[in-house]
Amino acid sequence: METDMDYFYGREWRGTISMSKNTKRYVQRVRKVAEEKPYLLVAHQYTRYLGDLFGGRMMGGMAQRSLSLDDGKGVAFYTFDDIPNATDFITDWYTRLNALDLTDGQKEEIIEEANLVFDLNIGILEDLEGSPLRAVWTLTLNTLKDKLGLGSS
């Protein structure tokens, strides 16, 4: 993501761009969950990381075309160099998820957290209104909705 920020905003973006209100909310939530109920981080992994991995190559290509980007610039977010086979990685992730020793209550909490994460990400998208990254995030969100069977809204 830092590579993409450098591309869109220049190397000095850290000194000129601050986190949006909803990004701060998201970061605060991740920190709170990590401290209080770390098993809920599974919902964050699924919604953000696996959602991006599922559609990463396709979304990166779509973003490149829709934003007229050259040579893969601006889409490093969708590059997973350390994962040579996405299908194998996702299969392994689900195997490990199913092996976790979670109570039914914890499983329900993870589902509730995933819904919250989804809402928090919608807030971030709203904050990106007018940003060149908006198209990339919108494509990601739509792909995630499709993968989760939620359709477009």
Could you explain the architecture of this structure?
The protein is mainly alpha-helical. The protein is globular, with a radius of gyration of 16 Å. It has helices spanning 2-9, 13-16, 21-36, 41-66, 86-99, 104-127, 134-147. Helix 3 (21-36) runs antiparallel to helix 6 (104-127) and helix 4 (41-66) packs parallel to helix 6. It has a single domain, classed as Heme oxygenase-like (Heme Oxygenase, Chain A, Up-down Bundle), CATH 1.20.910. It contains 7 helices and no strands. The chain starts with a helix and ends in a 6-residue tail after the last helix. Helices cover 69% and strands 0% of the residues.
